[in-house]
Design brief:
The chain is mainly α. The chain has helices spanning 16-30, 36-46, 51-62, 67-81, 87-99; strands at residues 3-4, 10-11.
């Protein structure tokens, strides 16, 4: 079963429940509200191979002002890079790899 996100993009490794958690995480992040990590954790627990959930997690670490979080982005990126990914997801991974 192919699943699309709320922007109508195909996503890899997700379940409907994981997608809900991911979309909640993305909404809280984009609106500067608390709870992003909680929603994202729910998505990753529901679907450990959900590529874009890992990508968002790595972006959160990468954009942190905490040097330890930035270092964590490398391992999350490496894990996400081993998952199935479509062309769009691979572009996110490549951009993050270039930033790292």
């Amino acid at each position: 079963m192919k699943i699309k996100d709320y922007r109508d993009y195909d996503i890899s490794g997700a379940t409907p429940a994981a997608l809900d958690g991911f979309e909640d995480a993305l909404a809280t992040f984009q609106s500067w509200r608390r709870g992003t990590e909680t929603h994202l954790g729910r998505a990753l627990l529901e679907a450990p191979t959900f590529t874009m959930a890992h990508v968002l997690n790595a972006y959160l670490y990468l954009c942190s002002r905490d040097p330890n979080h930035v270092r964590l982005a490398r391992s999350v990126h490496a894990q996400a890079s081993r998952l199935d990914a479509n062309d769009r997801e691979r572009l996110h991974l490549a951009a993050m790899g270039a930033a790292l």
